[in-house]
Amino acid sequence: MDHDAGAGLLNPYAQTKVGSDTIFAWFARYQNAKAEGRDAVNGTIGALLEDDGTLAINTVVDEAIRQAPPVEIAAYAPLTGLPAFLDLAKTLALGERRTELESMGIAMTATASAGGSGALYLAATNFANRGDHVILRDRHWGPYKGFLAGCDLKPRTYPLLPKEASPYPFVDIQGFKSELSNLCAKQDKVMIWINDPAHNPTGLTLTPDGRMAMLEAVMESASVNEKVGHTLLLDLAYHLYAEEPHGWAETIHDAMSNGWPWPENLLITFALSLSKSHTMYGLRTGAIVSIHPDQAVTDRIATVMGVTGRQTWSAAPRVSQFTVSEMHASHETGAAWSNERDRLKELLTDRRTALIDCCEQLGVPLNPTHDGFFAWLDHEQPHDIAEACAQQDVYLVPLTGGVRIGLCAIPLAQIPKVASALRDALQ
């Protein structure tokens, strides 16, 4: 490929867009192996598959979509989203603690988005100054960098796990505080992105103490740095498959109940996705939910997000908003959705348990992994490990700092083969 082609037509940022998506490139390699008749294992994609390899679909959602009235399929949604869907989004983000937080004076707003990715874009383009750094963990979903770069932002990372013994085993709280302090000295806005629970790409979930320590660090920083706006974004892409799906709402509620003062320069926002939780990947529906003690702040955010969405994708799909709103408004269909979601969650739990057990038996140093779609092997040469696994017809995804293992796609019966391939690759 001639990377200079179109140089006179493309702007400088556009000219930096080269190559293909790593995940889909490795998925293509799996597909080629399968087409050649090999007994290949697909651990690449981020979609939940049944043990027979077909896409796992929540049948309750599927049926509800097919029964939607034609006008709900064909018509535009309001630019910010259907009111019933926006109300549901707040509940999906905060669970049973929503009402109590509202009674404590916490104001909330929601805007429908083009999937969880759309919610991330809304945050990136509105909550940080161009040229600033955004704080990420050093192991994160690769497209984060693209969303940030497209808004002229750069990542600043801290280690995923503490290097020394810590009361918070799944967050490097000291590393996080250090990066937060450094940026507060240089920027008048600081944004933090954390994908929790059920972190992509590791499956890591913070403990209640870890969540509280992180929230305390952000609140303390906001209190000390009064002229620096702080935004804590919680990416909830996989949260409804976690053991504590609304753990952050619990933590925020506990902090408020204990009398913690909420600094006016702190916003907490949630990037919500229906792709995984409702198996609606292609309908591209999500929401950004923001909470703050001052309703004037959330009202202003609602306006900004609505205008941004209008200028970017116009309006998010109506049929998915209508369908899930109607479905969750009924106790019967809501419970049926939950039962089917629990079945899909059990697929993931069984696969994760099997992988952890097999890796322990074979001496494979798998990273701590708890919830969601993925597991992770930390390694300084991830491409070498992935290539060695591919030679054994096991296809995983090499990313910065390690190899992502797509438990969501691997049939339970093939888990031992994955563990064996990892052991051989490491040797």
Account of the protein in words:
The chain has 427 residues and is of the alpha/beta class. It has two domains: 14-58 and 346-426, Aspartate Aminotransferase, domain 1 (Alpha-Beta Complex); 78-316, Type I PLP-dependent aspartate aminotransferase-like (Major domain) (Aspartate Aminotransferase, domain 2, 3-Layer(aba) Sandwich), CATH 3.40.640. Helices cover 44% and strands 15% of the residues. It has 15 helices and twelve strands. It has helices at 22-35, 59-66, 70-74, 83-94, 98-103, 115-126, 143-150, 173-184, 208-224, 247-257, 295-312, 318-329, 331-362, 382-390, 415-426, and strands spanning 41-42, 107-113, 133-137, 154-158, 189-195, 229-235, 266-273, 286-292, 374-378, 394-395, 397-399, 402-406. Strands 2-8-7-6-5-3-4 form a seven-stranded mixed beta sheet, sandwiched between helices. Helix 8 (173-184) runs parallel beside helix 9. The chain is globular, with a radius of gyration of 22 Å.
Question: Could you say what the CATH architecture of the largest domain is?
Answer: 3-Layer(aba) Sandwich
- Give the strand order of the largest sheet, numbering strands 1, 2, ... along the chain: 2-8-7-6-5-3-4
- Protein structure class: alpha/beta
Q: What's the gyration radius in Å?
A: 22 Å
Total DSSP helices: 15
Major sheet: 7 strands, mixed
β content, as a range? 5-15%
The H-level CATH homologous superfamily of the largest domain, spelled out, is Type I PLP-dependent aspartate aminotransferase-like (Major domain)
CATH topology of the largest domain: Aspartate Aminotransferase, domain 2
Q: How much helical structure, as a percent, in the residues? A: 40-55%
| Unreliable stretches | none
What is the approximate shape? globular
Q: What count of structural domains?
A: 2
Order of helices and strands: HEHHHHEHEHEHEHEHEEHHHEHEEEH
Distance between the termini: 36 Å
CATH class of the largest domain: Alpha Beta
**Number of β-strand runs:** 12
Q: Kindly report the average pLDDT value.
A: 96
